């Protein structure tokens, strides 16, 4: 089955760090662009990070730039989101999403992980 | 940053009725727009991309139209399982941005 399984969420104090994992099964993660999206308690969705399939292009939303970092492990078929200097406003449900291209060349976030909760609070 | 808005915020309709959801981008995005359905406790599910292309396994009652700045998701005949929040996402430029969602309630 093609799926993304996430782990690593939890409760952390402001200023702390967490690493989220996104493990792919049924496909090779390094053949796809991968993205991270978070959802705030009020349901708003925010795209936060993108890694191209080559790994050469990594982009971040301004809200996380300089604090979050993407990485990939091809052997474990996983991507990771290292989150540092966490703030109260980073509290959200975090999703990883596969960016897939169809035969006509159009892309879409077609497979999503189940989401993990990150709560930043003292 | 392209700002995406959606209307209405909530739509309450009966089974069998037609639902029309709107999405508007603050700048032209061509057809680089996708629609997602999200149910409580679940991840968003891709419905349509490139404004009108149905994703694999999506029923034909879901259709999309529009280009430029104004887009529409139509559910031709509502089923009880269509109760959800529907989001649009522009992927024309960085950062990718989502609309705030339309909640569809089935009476």
Which descriptors apply to this entry?
heterodimer; A: mainly beta; 4-stranded antiparallel beta sheet; 0% helix; B: 107 residues; mainly beta; 50% strand
Mean pLDDT of chain B: 97
Number of strands of chain B: 11
Please give the radius of gyration of chain B in angstroms: 13 Å
Pair of chains with the largest interface and how many residues each contributes: A-B, 23 and 22 residues
General shape of chain A: globular
The percentage helix of chain B is: under 10%
Sheet with the most strands of chain B?
7 strands, mixed
**Helix-strand makeup class of chain A:** mainly beta
Structural topology:
The complex is a heterodimer of chains A (122) and B (107).
Chain A: E1 3-7, E2 10-12, E3 18-25, E4 33-39, E5 45-51, E6 58-60, E7 68-73, E8 78-83, E9 92-101, E10 107-112, E11 116-120
Parallel strand pairs in A: 2-11
Antiparallel strand pairs in A: 1-3, 3-8, 4-5, 4-9, 5-6, 7-8, 9-10, 9-11
Chain B: E1 4-7, E2 10-13, E3 19-25, E4 33-38, E5 45-49, E6 53-54, E7 62-67, E8 70-75, E9 84-90, E10 97-98, E11 102-106
């Amino acid at each position: 089955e093609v799926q993304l399984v996430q782990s690593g969420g939890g409760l952390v104090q402001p200023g702390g760090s967490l690493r989220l994992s996104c493990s792919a099964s049924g496909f090779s993660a390094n053949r796809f662009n991968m993205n991270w999206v978070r959802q705030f308690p009020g349901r708003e969705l925010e795209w936060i990070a993108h890694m191209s399939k080559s790994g050469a292009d990594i982009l971040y939303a301004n809200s996380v730039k300089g604090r979050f970092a993407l990485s990939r492990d091809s052997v474990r078929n996983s991507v990771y989101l290292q989150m540092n200097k966490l703030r109260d406003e980073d509290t959200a449900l975090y999703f990883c999403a596969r960016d897939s291209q169809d035969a006509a060349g159009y892309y879409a976030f077609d497979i999503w992980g189940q989401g993990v909760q990150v709560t930043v609070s003292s | 940053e392209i700002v995406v808005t959606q209307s209405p915020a909530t739509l309450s309709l009966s089974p069998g009725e037609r639902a029309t959801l709107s999405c508007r981008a603050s700048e032209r995005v061509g057809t680089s727009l996708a629609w997602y359905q999200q149910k409580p406790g679940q991840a968003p599910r891709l419905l349509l991309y490139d404004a009108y292309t149905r994703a694999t396994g999506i029923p034909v009652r879901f259709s999309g139209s529009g280009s430029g700045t104004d887009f529409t998701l139509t559910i031709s005949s509502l089923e009880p399982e269509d109760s959800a929040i529907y989001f649009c996402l522009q992927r024309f430029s960085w950062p990718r941005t989502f609309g705030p969602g339309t909640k569809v309630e089935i009476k």
